[in-house]
Amino acid sequence: MATRKKIPSPLVLSIDVGTSSARVTAFDTAGERVGSIGASQAHQPHTTPDGGAELDADELIERVLRLLEGACSQIPAGVELAGVGCCTFWHSVLGVDAGGNAVTPIYTWADTRSTAAEARLRERLDEAAVHARTGCRFHTSYLPARLLWLSEAEPARFRQAARWMSPGEYLYSRLFGAPYCSVSMASGTGLLDQQRMAWDRELLDALPIEPEQLSPIVALTDAACGLCGAAAERLPRLRATSWVPAVGDGAASNIGSGCISPDRVALMVGTSGAMRALVGGAVAPPPGLWEYRVDAGRPLVGGALSNGGNLLAWLAGTLRLPDLREVEREVAGMAPDAHGLTLLPFLAGERSVGWRADARAAIVGLSWSTRREEIVRAALESVALRFAQIWRRLAPLVPGCRTVVASGGALLASPVWTQIVTDALNEPVIASAEPEASSRGAALLALEALDLRRLSDVAFPFGPHYEPDPARHALYRQAMERQERLYALLLEQSDLGARRDA
Fold this sequence. Notes:
- This protein has 2 domains: 11-248, ATPase, nucleotide binding domain (Nucleotidyltransferase, domain 5), CATH 3.30.420.40; 259-433 and 469-502, 2-Layer Sandwich (Nucleotidyltransferase, domain 5), CATH 3.30.420.40.
- The mean pLDDT is 93.
- 37% of the residues lie in helices and 21% in strands.
- The protein is of the alpha/beta class.
């Protein structure tokens, strides 16, 4: 008869709230997952034809509380809970009233309705100077354009909001009666002056909000403790536990996948996609890239794609694909770029490297003979080519990089896609063996903040290695040039149309 494995003590819990799911996982003080404890639940943003992408704030918090209740019920009496770490999706905001109640939905990073407001900000302010201070361009995924748009599109709802905050801040506000905004979460808003580590004065002067409507910025070591109200009754095991402020899920993913120094660059494809590197000090990110933070002393530079695994999911539904493993076998047998298609993957607009929220997806080259697996292959390659554009700009900032580490459920589930990315980058890629890098990263940052474990002492598991093929890379360079020409042509036509309408 098999014996049940003893649960280690103490433990930390990790809350990981992503765009498409939330999970709670337990880790020991070595940063290893305790697989028998935890649960996850999927959710789906509400999307609208005009570009909206929203989540109900209270439903999301209730989902997290239920997952925490479930995890606590699985932990035996006598096992100490040393802390709670948390990461949530970046670039999202909701408004709350004076009583701390949500009066708006969560407007997620994928909401593109603020395109016109983005253009007006560009007319009013020096975008290059703002980018140098905040690390962020003017774009619909960031708060400046979104808040300006909301004040004009829904003025009554906008006036109801006494404060504006991220989902992580709202969670902590519900738990402790006050929001906790980490440097990491602040850095993803587009409102943080990263030179001063304070909210950007010039931007706030150009927006219809006041500085006091944003949360105070705290360090990760400023842990919250002492649950209040209903949360204390529902989570008695966690009443006296230290809760580390929420960080951006991208920052947590870098840490969890072992990319904790400039010699490893993280490449993640989940719902969306990103390529990020911790750099040795403050840098001036090139126009196509952004700079966020893990904390005040750890800048994170990279680029992001709005379309990753969500593109594959859309194709699966639209093309009525069978089991994706079967399609993967068909795609694997095809030569690179042999389908004759040029695809732009911008179903949710573009972030890096052109930052055109108004860009839309396109497929050029379809014929009667085009097969569904060719469209899938072209889609996988199109995302890889966008990553290659990011890498062109990121590589000079990390000259000591020795490894690109692949992570994210969508990419790790597809060796074919990982090889395509490897060939497009023309760099060796190693797969992370950590299935939930963001969850582990949040736990590791909590352990570090609570002085229970140093990141340098943590072991990071890795899986298969992928080597680039020069001949395939040459084909992808040609494909990238074709993609760039299509991008320029379609965006030029869009700009001409906008000028005619004006």
